[in-house]
Amino acid sequence: MVTNPVTPAPVFVETEEPELESLYHLVLLDDDQHTYDYVIEMLGSIFGYGPEKAWALARTVDTQGRVILETGPRERCEAHQGQIHAYGADPRMPTSKGSMSAILEEAGAPGAG
Q1: Which among 64, 67, 44 is positioned nearest to 54, based on CA atoms?
Q2: CB-based contacts of 88: which residues, under 8 Å, 6+ apart?
Q3: Terminus-to-terminus CA distance in the chain, angstroms?
Q4: Which long-range contacts (CB under 8 A, 24 or more apart) does 80-84 make?
Q5: Dihedral sign (CA 91, 76, 65, 53)
Q6: Can you list the residues of the chain whose pLDDT is less than 70?
Q7: What does residue 44 show for φ and ψ, rounded to 5 degrees?
Q8: CA 31, CA 100: separation in Å to the nearest integer?
Q9: pTM for this structure?
Q10: Domains in the chain: ranges and CATH
Q11: 93-112 pLDDT, tens per residue?
């Protein structure tokens, strides 16, 4: 008697891909109410950026009108945005009435690019 071996049919298990968290850019906006020293000091205080990196970012916001300070989860960017908005006026400039402005922009689909 010849027996036919039975090959089990493959079992497909549907798994859900974990949802990737959306990323956001925290963008600092230029104004004429804050000195380079203020921007460098603020970026060092909030982000821990060294003087060279902070100066490069200050130069970019001054010449291009805006600069991306970080890209990350919305909550982290919002927390840093709040710190920027709470940093206060530039004591080196009598015309400075308050903090710099920063906005959030969606960075696009995760993994795109």
Answers
A1: 44
A2: 98, 99
A3: 62
A4: 80/26, 80/46, 80/47, 81/26, 83/46, 84/28, 84/42, 84/46
A5: positive
A6: 1-19, 109-113
A7: -65, -40
A8: 7
A9: 0.78
A10: 23-106 (3.30.1390.10)
A11: 999 999 999 999 999 755 44
